[in-house]
Amino acid sequence: MSDVNVEASHPAATAGGADATEPDKPFGPVAAAFIAAGVGVFVLGLLTTLAEASKGFADSLNFRDPVGPLSGKTILAVAAWLVAWVVLHVALRRREVSPRAVYLVTALLVALGLLLTFPTFFDQFAPE
Prior knowledge:
The chain is mainly α and about 130 residues long. The protein has helices spanning about 5-10, 10-15, 30-55, 55-60, 70-90, 100-115, 120. Helix 3 (about 30-55) runs antiparallel to helix 5 and helix 3 (about 30-55) runs parallel beside helix 6.
């Protein structure tokens, strides 16, 4: 039987890569992406409810006639997601953030955003 050197066959060990003493990368950039996604979902839900509550606001979201207010809702939600991602990435890029807190905040934002998009919820705000 031949002896196999496990360390020498590991790609990181042979390529001069990271060893076991190198610290992990900070969770901040990942946290920024997660929370920004939650912000985007929340903004979409908020815009949906506000557009249902106000005809004038819905008309202001009509960026393209064939699409109607949906065009403004989605464009603004994507813009909010991108801005949140950039701002949070810059703020958190070198920080170690609690993953549990990030997942909780993201889940809360997504849950609220989804709630705000359901007709049974936003119909309560519609003018009669």
